[in-house]
Description:
By secondary structure, this protein is of the alpha/beta class. It contains 23 helices and 18 strands. The strands form 4 sheets. It has a 7-stranded mixed beta sheet with strand order 2-1-3-4-5-6-7. A 6-stranded mixed beta sheet has the order 13-18-14-17-15-16.
Amino acid sequence: xxxxLDAMQLYILFISLASLCHWLHYVQLxxxxxxxxxxxxxxxxLIERIRLERDYDTLVIYGSEPCVFHELLPQLGxxxxxxxxxxxxxDWSFSSKSLLLICNSNAEQEQNRxxxxxxxxARRLVYLEPEKQPTEVCEAYFQREQVNVAMVDAVGNLYxxxxxxQENYVQLALNLSDSYQTESTALVNLNSDFDKESDSxxxxxxxxxxxxxFANMRGLPIRAEPDQNGPRAFVYHxxxxxxxxxKGYLSNLITSFAERVNATVKLRDDIGLGQKMHFNxxxxxxxxxxxxxxxxxxxxxxxxxxxxxxxxxxxxxxxxMIPVPAQLDYKEIYTLIVQPLVAGVLIVLxxxxxLLYIYSxxxxxxxxxxxxxxxxxxCLRGLLGHAFPMPAQPSRHLKAICMLICFASIMxxxxxxxxxxxxxxxxxxxxxxxxxxxxxTSRYKIAVERERAIHWVFENxxxxxxxxxxxxxxxDWQELLRLRETFNDSFIYPVADLxxxxxxxxxxxxxxxxxxxxxxxxxxxxILLALPVxxxxxxxxxxERHILAMQEFGILQFWMHNSFNEMVRxxxxxxxxxxHPEEPEDQLYVRDLTNILxxxxxxxxxxxxxxxxxxxxxxxxxxx
Length: 624
C-alpha cells in the first residue's frame, strides 16, 4: 500500500513539473510584446512555432512594399534576404535551410532557375489578402510544384496547404497559448492517450503546419521509362493481368518507392517488349518534363550540375571485356617448351661436357679441336638420351664423365617429356592482354559507339592516326549491344562492372568462358551513377532517402546478383550457350609436326654443309 502511494506521489510530482515548464515557456513568449493580442505578436509566435517544427537559418522576404513581415526583422535577428522585385538576380549560393515570408499571394515571382530549384522544398508563409481564398493560393503553388505553403490572414486565421485531399487546405490554430494549455491537459491523460493516434479534426492544435505531403500519394502516377537494357531495366508482360510491368534492379527501386508512398508507376501506352531506348532520348524526355524518373543510369561526369540527377545510386568502373585467349595449336607447343634460357643452359652444358670428355680420354689436350668440341657426337647423343659407343678400357675419369652425361640426359629428357605430355593434355592459352598497348598489337579491334568514342577511348588512351584503325566505330548502338550480348569474340567491348556481373553469371552456363573482365585496362575506374529525374520533382528528397535505405539494407546488392536469374525466370532471357569451344583432338596430324619437320630439315642441311666443308678442307690440305 505504501509503495502504491509513493508511485502516485511521484506521478503527481512529474505532472506538476511538466505543467510548470510549459507555463514558464508561455510566460516567456507572453513578454515578447506589451500587447499580446496584436497581429505582430501572433506572427512572432507563429514564426517561433515554425522554427520548433524544423529549424531554419535564413529568412527570405518577397514583397515590393513594406508589410508586416518587415516589421518583425528586429525581433527575429536572423540573416535576411529582401527580394522586392519578386525574384533574385543571382543564383542561390547560400544555405537552402530557409523560411520564405511572402507579403501577399502575388509577391513571389521567382524567375531564376537555380534559385527556384534550391528553394522548391523551402517552407513558405504567405500573408493572405482579405479578398483571396486559401484554395486559390494553394492551387497556384501546387501548379508550380511548391507544396510547403502556409497562409495567415489579418484576422489571425492560419491555413496550411494539403495536396492529396478534396479541399486543398486545412485551418489550424494560431494562438500558441491554447496549444500549451492543451498540451498540459494531454499530459494528465497520458495513460489513456499514449497509444492512440491524434485526430486532427478534434484536436487541431496538434496538427503540424508543414507535413510530408508525398508520404501518401493516394495513387498518383509516377511517369517512368526504362531503357530496356537488361538487367537493370526491362519491360515484362504479365500474363495474368495482361499489363506491362518494369523489372530490373533499377526498375525495382522505382516500383518499391511507389509501393512505399502509395503511388502507381505509369508507362507509355505504346511501350513494347525489347524496344531499347538510347540514353540521349530518355534524357530529352526528362528535360522536357515528360518523365518523372527514368530507369537508366547517368554519370555525374556528363553534367556540370546534378540538377537532373538523384543522389548517387551506385558506383562502378568502366573497363574492357576481352575474349578469353585461345588455346595454342599443337604445332606451337614444340617451340613453346624450348625456352631460350633453358636452351642456352643446355648448350653451355654440352660444351663443358665436350671439353671434359676430350680431356678425360688421355688426360691432356692433344685430341682437342674446335670441331670436336662443337660437334662431339658422343656428348650430343648422350644429352639426347641416345646410346653412344664407349672406348675400350676407359679410365675412371672417362667413366665419371659418361655418368654425368647420362644423368644430365635423364633430367633433360624427363623434363621435356613432362612438358610435352602436359601441354598436349591441357594446351596453354595465348598471352593475356594486360595493357592498352597489348590490345593495339593484338588481332582484336575495340568496338565502341561513335558518340562515346571521342570522350571514352580517344582522349583516355591518346590514339593517333596510326593506330586509330584498331577502333571500330558503330553508328547503330543497338547493333553494338547485340554483338556484346551474343558474346561475339571478334571484338573487345567496353563494359561497366555492373553489367559484367550479369554477363559473368550467364557464362556459368556455357561449356567454357568466352570473355573475361580486365581490371588492368580501364577507361574509368570509379564512376558515380545516378537516376535521371525531372528538374522540379517535388518528392525528389523522399526518393533519395529511399535510395539510401535500399543501399543501407543491402537490397540493391540482392537485386543485382539475382538479376540474370530473374530475367530467366520471367522468360525475358535464356541460358543459351554462346560459347564455341573447340573439341579436343585425340590424335596428331602432319600439320601438327610442321615445326619439328622444319627443325629436322634445318639440322640435316647443317649436317650436309659441315660434310661439304670437311671434304673441301681435306682436299685443300691433302688429307686422306
